[in-house]
Design goal:
homodimer; 225 residues; DNA-binding
DNA sequence: CCTACCGATCGGTAGG
DNA sequence: CCTACCGATCGGTAGG
């Protein structure tokens, strides 16, 4: 179990980089620019920062095992203060999840741009999904799985969003010249299941992501004869 | 982390607080009639019952989201009383996991018995894994995934056990006449990833399990030419 | 197997 | 964004 470094009244977490304005110092000002009032921008940035921190923790530990205090600590503030930025833990999770799906959809659509061969398109989508699932650096994190510890009402909303996302793959599979005895529905589900759980089986230092995507297509490729 | 011995027949509560049971009584008979003193068998049965209840809950909600009180309640006793039967929540989880892997290995080996064609063998193993993952009625439950909310020290022990289990599939894949440009390691990992997450994507009322197994083999089957 | 409890931790809030 | 706190719940224990 993690020994909590939860701050007592005496020792507080040190804030990373973003400290409140020090004594005599004005509020954060962009380097050469004009001073800004307590703008929406600052708050929005701070909020986005918190979302990314939370996303990373949720992805690492799951919903239940990530506490509000964990998130607050890494963001450099106290648990109660987090509620200045978020409404609740559940709302935070839902927002992260939806933003991640949206970003993922955009990335994949971009990766597909200009490609016409159906297998080539599928491979590009697979590669992009791998990158998304394995990249710990943004909101596009592996949070689509591991919904077991999420409260049911929250989960239902997420699954609906996810279904919409999967339309991309539904279309990709529909374009494939697959043998007639292959169930395209199951085919898509199996493929997505692989990709979504990538952070569970991927091992750094073995095959590169592009090689994995190529292998996946090699396996899943069946030409209608 | 200490791993409990696997066979449950001789397993006993760790704390022999009760007086010695009488002369070896036969197992408890539901409505049989004769009153019985408390024997090992009763305790072992009760313990096994608790393990199955806990397994089901862990599978449903994950480690973290399943409380000792949840388990106790469903077993019909109070939280504190559970510690007469188990040592800790962690030890309980590890024991369940190991027993499930052992049972799964046995079931698959049995399903393979008599089959010689490598593809037929792989398909039989896939089907058996599906049955195991989707059957909510025993210790062979879908608990091999979803390890994210499990404390790291526990998780490490489980992953080691799982690796041993995967040897079965390593052998099955080794026997396949696959094209040379397919990475057998990745091939096995992808296949297991599908099967292990089956309870995440399976939908009752669509394809039957046997049909799914057949489809999986249809997709994963590539003849060396 | 129960009663009665423990210290820790949880998500969240009031008021500044 | 902090201080100070709430009620609920957690895994676990002592003693019967």
């Amino acid at each position: 179990m993690k020994l909590s470094t939860l701050p007592s009244a005496a020792s507080r977490p040190t804030r990373p980089a973003r400290s409140k304005a020090g004594p005599g110092q004005a509020r954060a000002v962009p380097d050469g620019g004009k001073p800004q009032g307590p703008g929406h921008e600052d708050q929005a940035d701070r909020r986005h920062e918190i979302l990314e921190i939370a996303a990373e923790l949720f992805a690492e530990r799951g919903y239940r095992a990530t506490s509000i205090r964990d998130i607050a600590e890494r963001a450099g503030l106290l648990a109660g203060s987090l509620y200045y930025h978020i409404r609740s833990k559940e709302a935070l999770f839902v927002e992260i999840h939806n933003k991640a799906l949206e970003a993922a959809a955009l990335r994949i659509r971009t990766a597909l741009d200009g490609l016409t061969d159906p297998w080539e398109r599928l491979q590009a989508a697979c590669l992009e999904m791998l990158e998304i699932q394995l990249n710990p650096g943004s909101l596009t994190l592996p949070i689509m799985n591991n919904l077991r510890s999420v409260p049911v009402n929250v989960r239902d909303a997420l699954i609906q969003q996810r279904d919409a996302f999967e339309t991309i793959f539904r279309d990709l599979v529909a374009d494939l010249p697959l043998e007639a005895d292959i169930d395209k529905n199951l085919y898509r589900i199996l493929l997505l299941s692989l990709l979504n759980s990538a952070d569970g089986w991927f091992r750094e230092g073995r095959l590169a992501r592009a090689e994995i995507a190529a292998q996946i297509i090699r396996i899943f490729r069946h030409q209608k004869t």
